[in-house]
Design brief:
It is a single chain. The protein has three helices and six strands, in the order αββαβββαβ. The protein is α/β, with parallel strands linked by helices. It has a domain at 76-146: Ribosomal Protein L15, Chain: K, domain 2, CATH 3.100.10.10. The strands form two sheets. Strands 1-3-5 form a three-stranded parallel β-sheet. The longest helix has 9 residues, at 131-139. The radius of gyration is 34 Å and the shape is elongated.
Length: 147
């Protein structure tokens, strides 16, 4: 078999139906469009949202305000008071947070929030920290490192 032998399967391709080419063609005169009316005209027909004169669905629904920000980053949130379960001086990584059940998955970036107090120093590694969380971690003698 050579490249010039390749082609579509027999019967899978066919020419388009030529309409409006005289009465003898079988599709002359009205060219399969019936008589007169909106749908017989060139470019005619109704839009997708047209509902036969009934108020369209788009107008029947209440108006929605605002917009959805497609660039928003969705974080897995962890509060400071939940980090108490780790021993003093330990390095808290995203994997450790997952193993401890503080985050459900590592698909989302992790953000540490400043709710609660930290009693002992920890080295916390996460994608993002709130300003409060960073201050409280450093005040307890620990270190907040962004990944």
């Amino acid at each position: 078999m050579r490249q010039h032998d390749l082609g579509p399967k027999a019967g899978s391709k066919h020419g388009r139906k030529r309409v409006g080419r005289g009465d003898g063609s079988g599709h002359g005169t009205y060219s399969c469009r019936g008589c007169k009316g909106q749908k017989s005209r060139s470019g005619g027909g109704v839009g997708l949202r047209f509902e036969g004169g009934q108020t369209p669905l788009v107008k029947r629904l209440p108006a929605q305000r605002g917009f959805t920000n497609i660039f928003k980053t969705d974080y897995a949130l962890v509060n400071l008071h939940r980090l108490r379960i780790f021993e003093e001086g330990i390095e808290v990584t995203p994997q450790r947070l997952l193993d401890a059940g503080l985050v459900s998955s590592l698909k989302k970036p992790i953000k540490v929030l400043g709710d609660g107090e930290l009693q002992h120093p920890l080295v916390v590694r996460a994608n993002k920290f709130s300003q409060t969380a960073k201050k409280k971690i450093e005040a307890s003698g620990g270190k907040a490192e962004e990944i």
